[in-house]
Amino acid sequence: MTLQIKRFHELTTEELYAILRLRVSVFVVEQNCPYMELDDLDREALHVWLEDEDGIEAYLRILNRGVESEHVAIGRVIAVKRRRGLGTQILSEGIRAAREGFGADRIYLEAQTYARGLYEKQGFRQISDEFLLDGIPHVKMILK
Q1: Which residues pair with 107 in a beta bridge?
Q2: φ, ψ of residue 2 in degrees (nearest 5)
Q3: b/e sequence 24-45, b meaning 16+ C-beta within 10 Å
Q4: Range of 84's domain?
Q5: Nearest Cα to Cα of residue 93 among 144, 59, 142, 139
Q6: What's the domain count of the chain?
Q7: Rounded to a whole number, what is the distance in angstroms from the first to the last CA of the chain?
Q8: Whether this model's pTM surpasses 0.85
Q9: Has residue 23 been placed in a domain?
Q10: CATH code of residue 35
Q11: Of 27, 77, 107, 144, whose CA is between 20 and 30 Å from 122?
């Protein structure tokens, strides 16, 4: 498994296509949630993924302070093969990249409620009541 960390302008068209295809297949199609996946924030993001010979196996993006939140934010967390530790691995890499790339002292995210435990294992703490985002239950979380 190879780790890739790139800013938007460093992505090849093939990498960008693979990232967007994966995100749409999970967040729009699999979750049956029509929403604007292409939100213009990708241009500001640090894109982090794990890949092997089959392609991208896990992905997330990181946004600097002031783009989505007052804190550095992680979002679009995906593991293609679930329950194999890839979510934990990509989240660990994302936390490290947020600290190194943006000097993050706090990291913010909005977790789908069912996945809250994944984030809690990495030290994130819930800071909001549950709310609906695009019809899916979420909670706001922070890592200090």
Answers
A1: 72, 143
A2: -110, 135
A3: eebbeeeeeeeeeeeeeebeeb
A4: 2-104
A5: 59
A6: 1
A7: 28
A8: yes
A9: yes
A10: 3.40.630.30
A11: 27
